Amino acid sequence: MTAVAVAHAVAGPADAPVVVLSNSLGATRGMWDPQVPALAERFRVVTYDTRGHGESPAPAGPYRLDDLVDDVVALLDALGVRRAHVAGLSLGGMTALRLAAREPARVAGLAVLCSSARTDPQGFLDRAALARAEGTASFAPAVVSRWLTPAFAAQHPDLVARLEAMVSGADDEGYAACAEVVGGIDLRADLGRITAPTLVVSGAEDPALPPEHQRLIAEGIPGAGFLSVSPGAHLANLEQPQRVTGALLAHLESAGATP
Q1: Residue 35 in contact with residue 240, Cβ under 8 Å?
Q2: Which of 6, 52, 78, 195 could be 58's S-S partner, Cβ–Cβ 3.0 to 4.6 Å?
Q3: Which of 184, 171, 187 is nearest to 51 (CA)?
Q4: Number of C-alpha atoms within 13 angstroms, CB side, residue 75?
């Protein structure tokens, strides 16, 4: 499949090292809003909507994970970026892992949040079928209930409503095709080939992809660091913005420049 031109935004100095942030299944680039201001003080921050999400096109499926990687490579090429740091959460983390394994020259530093190298496929295949049959709005509240711990969600009803709108706003077929990507991945053989300095972040209370998924990633990538945040569910970057942003800044700065 041909790469698609994904919707994106750029913040920060034009001559700074570049960091690309990749969103989770069902979210848009807006999920990174708490991280962008601090990162943009030191980096050129590129956020984008994965195909099928937000303002990006939703070409007919099926999709492969390599298609999502091709979209990121095409975005980097369009921006004139030869080498970048890449951080991704959930599906975005899977995209980042595959990019780092497949295109090591393009990835200077890697951060993988609340993601997995091998999922239990049936739940994602069932959700893909539901997206096609009833639309993403039919399960938006159930999905978002796994993104934040119950106590945090109860304290932030406006955020919950915004996240549910993200899920409901995804293209039904695009979401379904991406859910099938998540259900079909097996990146375990890729982990040992990743050479970029890597940080793996885990939400201790993540019911969607529990911590054992992130521990497997960290153990498989030579020299990877591991950070567990609590309380934190699947979108730990929203529940622990200062901790996650600080960890990203420290890791990416230590990973070096992206000429």
Answers
A1: no
A2: 52
A3: 171
A4: 29
- pLDDT band at residue 258, thresholds of 50, 70 and 90? low
Q: What are the structural domains, with CATH classification, of the chain?
A: 8-117+187-255 (3.40.50.1820)
The Cα–Cα gap between 178 and 53 comes to 9
- Which is it for the CA torsion 230, 235, 241, 246, positive or negative? positive
CB 209 within 8 A of CB 116: yes
Rounded CA separation 45/20 (Å): 6
**How far apart are the C-alpha atoms of 24 and 216, rounded to whole Å?**
19
Which of the four pLDDT bands, split at 50, 70 and 90, describes residue 159? very high
Contacts of 131 (CB under 8 A, 6+ apart): 139, 172, 173, 175, 176, 179
Q: How many CB atoms lie within 10 A of CB 211?
A: 18
Residue (of 64, 110, 71, 70) closest to 87 by Cα position? 110
Q: Residue 236: left if φ>0, alpha if ψ -120 to 50, beta else—which one? A: alpha
pTM exceeds 0.70 for this model:
yes
Per the structure block, which two tokens stand in for 29?
């680039």
